[in-house]
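are you around this afternoon, could really use another pair of eyes. what follows is a protein written twice so to speak, once as letters and once as structure tokens for the fold. i want to understand how the tokens follow from the sequence so walk me through it. anything you notice is useful, everything is just below.
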Amino acid sequence: MRVLVATDAWHPQVNGVVRTLMSLAESARRQGATIEFLTPEGFPSVALPTYRSLRCALPTRREIALRIERARPNAIHVATEGPIGHMVRSYCIKHGLPFTTSYTTRFPEYISARIPVPEAWSYAVLRRFHAPAGVTLVSTKSLMAELAARGFKHLGLWTRGVNTELFRPERAIDLPLPRPLFVSVGRVAVEKNLEAFLTLDLPGTKVVIGEGPQLDELRRRFPEATFLGHLEGEELAAHLAAADVFVFPSRTDTFGIVQLEALACGVPVAAFPVTGPKDVIGDHPVGVLDNDLRKACLGALQVSRAACRAFALTQSWDTSARQFLGHASSVVVDAFAGSRVAYA
């Protein structure tokens, strides 16, 4: 099976969506399927107003159609709700092609954190976007229940995994900072709620890994914290493994793959009991969830690192890929046996 995945999120972005898609392609290949990507590469783009380091692709309908038809996929998946996602969705509707989508980002909450737009309005737009899909894939059962309550239909589960070869305890480096080390990783932006972490009265050192529009502000306001900027690959794994506790202060993430990456390094998680942490940690003895984040951080210091690693070893990207391919098989068509005129 050959699946074309349309995504507005792509390199050089480093986020959960991009990491998920790259891991999906690798695991699907081992299962005899091919994942091809329709990405912003090759399209003109503009910088995003809030994230100057990120750019938004400006594709044309004709070029989108040509790329789809050159790929000749058996199934089409729309991974994001940006310009590329919208145009691929429109193409499929125009030509009567079934497709799947995924809900990966809480845009209503992200938008309302910046401008006074009611979340209900944004959810109405997203509900309309996903309505024509054969299946809308979500990463957790609690998110599935939440979206169903908001009127979303045809929801399917697509969990996430972790690369336990890259993220493992033995990679830990010796960081010359007072311990314990409380580390948070992710985009440094208002929706990640890092302020809730940085204002805590904790022993040792608070470390933030990542970059984003709030980085300069938080550096000024919290000079006692250590900001390491953007890290990835083995360097990220080494710093994660060096932590005593991984702190995940976000209340808006749909999953939070970095939680699994920390656990694979043997590092317990401290977080709020919200969607994402509730699904990843749940009742497993690998972290502490509490509305008092300081209490969660201090409690996580007592969690077994061996238990964290053992739990992470059960979270496979191969299982994630099998779920995705199972949903994709529901929309398989032989739509490109003949030529098709690209729509303008």
Notes: The chain is about 35% helix and 15% strand. The longest helix spans residues 16-30. The longest strand covers residues 2-6.
